[in-house]
Amino acid sequence: GADRQPIELFNRPSVIAHRGASIYAPENTLIAMETAIAQGADAVEIDVRMSSDGVLFLFHDTVVNRTTNLSNGAYIESLTFEQIQTLDAGTWYHPAFSGVKIPSLVEVLELIKGKVDLYLEIKGRTPGIEAKVVELLIEYEMIDSTTLMSFSRDQLRVIKSLNPDLETMMLIPVFFGSLSEVLDLDYVDSYGLRFDMIKANPEYIQMIHIREKRAYGWTINRRADIQMAVSYDVDGIITDDPLLAIELAYEK
Ligand code: G3P
Ligand code: CA
Asked: Is 18 annotated in the active site?
């Protein structure tokens, strides 16, 4: 809101709503993004895939079972966008959200543009997905307000070569060899660490900062964990509970 101190003055981590405000609304839906914006999050994190007919949309899992009304094990990317639009992505979370649809990336960009920053994880591995994402971000003039995230080094390299102005974030999975091995990759601007890794190796944050890169933690939901991440000086907290993270980030 307008009564807030700018982040730079306050030096607090940004609060990034993971899949939207996903403890308050079904993940990766417009209502989850609207909720995050209303709660005052600085940014939203989303998972992006491509439909069989080439439309970019939001969905975390590879199959439909957990977060739609279907339980036939269908691969979400094997469906056309029209078929995807027939799915109910709200009832599994709570009947009050019945009829909530899976949004296209375009719908999300239209909703958040000028309101919050975007942390866009490319989840799908469909060839050409990186170029399509970058094309849309250029069209919506959102290159400067977006960080593109991936677990795949190849994807990050492709993204950086498509548009050097795009901030990239390498996601670091649970079992990972040595962080130093990837710290100097020139196509990586920031690192997204699982919180248990930060907890075990808080010095990773300094190792990243020394290289003038940014360090983020995911997915940090508990009060004590958020406070710990704030004290370790992370640049951003990726959380399902932006409301709580905002309260604690401002306490610093
Ligand atoms: O923000 C990073 C985090 O979202 C990566 O894991 O499974 O929640 O997409 P996942
Ligand atoms: Ca994600």
From this structure: yes
